[in-house]
Specification:
Helices cover 11% and strands 36% of the residues. It folds into two domains: 186 residues, 3 Solenoid (UDP N-Acetylglucosamine Acyltransferase, domain 1), CATH 2.160.10; 67 residues, no CATH class. The termini are far apart. The longest helix is centred in the C-terminal third of the chain and has 21 residues. The protein is mainly β. Helix 1 crosses helix 2. It has a nine-stranded mixed sheet, with no helix packed on it. The chain has a seven-stranded parallel sheet with strand order 3-6-9-12-15-20-23, with no helix packed on it. It has a five-stranded mixed sheet with strand order 16-21-24-26-27, with no helix packed on it.
Length: 274
């Protein structure tokens, strides 16, 4: 199968192509995979993309800015598969898929992050190592700027990897790691309800300053865990919402996602331009 948009210089070739509209494509996109290419609804693939492999699957609400490279050495191996879950953010990353790469839901890869699934150079007949192994990032992981994830690594749920780290071993969930090689820094511990309420109040207070700067004055009320913005209710525990969306609720959503509170809808994250 083929998908082509000559105006945007987009060419996708795969045995099966599944584009779950609406999907937003940028420019200069080249995809050449032997098996399945899938991208979920409300996703965006930005500019300057080259993707090779066997099967490549992107979930719903993917956000990509620009500059993605998927493939590298071994891109035509039978296990050259990439699967990225829902609500993920990626940038100008390099993902080597000699072996499978599996990325869970709600994962962020900062700019210039690389994932490598094989390593070799000098001859194995001279005693040098050769490693081919898959990589898995579980739900909620954030990988900092210019970090490298090496072959065979599993990164547990809700892990923070600091900028410019090199991850050579498995990382346990709910912890912060950093350095070269990446080492344990601290455990992320749950906070009590009173502390959560205080943090939410501070978020609202900070947001109202932004709203004023944007020239808007939304009505905001807090009855924990619900924040009501105009006629839309946001649950800070479940990260769900209900009600009527408008440009002011969009502005609120765009701000609170910077606090890790991401509410996904069929409307893009967008601030009001003053």
């Amino acid at each position: 199968m083929k998908y082509e948009n000559k105006k945007k210089n987009i060419f996708i070739s795969a045995k099966d192509i599944n584009i779950d509209e609406p999907v937003d494509f940028g420019r200069d996109i080249s995809v050449n995979v032997r098996g399945e290419f899938t991208i979920g609804k409300y996703s965006r693939l930005g500019d300057d993309i080259q993707i090779f492999g066997n099967n490549v699957i992107f979930g719903e609400h993917l956000y990509h800015s620009s500059g993605l490279r998927v493939g590298g050495g071994g891109r035509y191996h039978p296990n050259a598969n990439l699967k990225i879950g829902d609500r993920c953010t990626i940038h100008n990353n390099f993902i080597n898929v000699c072996e499978p790469v599996v990325i869970g839901n709600d994962v962020g890869l900062s700019h210039h992050v690389s994932i490598i699934t094989h390593g070799y150079w000098l001859s194995v007949l001279e005693g040098h190592p050769r490693t081919f192994a898959s990589v898995k990032l579980f739900d909620g992981v954030i990988v900092g700027y210019r970090s490298v994830i090496l072959m065979g690594v599993n990164i547990g749920k809700n892990v923070v990897v600091g900028a410019q780290s090199v991850v050579t071993k498995n990382l346990k969930e709910n912890c912060i790691f950093g350095g070269n090689p990446a080492k344990f820094i601290k455990e992320i511990k749950p906070i009590d309800k009173e502390t959560k309420i205080l943090k939410v109040k501070n978020i609202i207070s900070d947001y109202m300053k932004i709203a004023k700067y944007h020239g808007i004055n939304p009505s905001i009320k807090l009855e924990y865990p619900i924040i009501t913005v105009n006629n839309c209710k946001f649950d800070v525990e479940e990260l769900t919402y209900s009600g009527v969306e408008d440009v002011e609720t969009d502005d609120f959503r765009d701000y609170v996602r910077k606090c890790g509170l991401r509410y996904y809808s069929n409307r893009p994250f967008k601030s009001v331009v003053a």
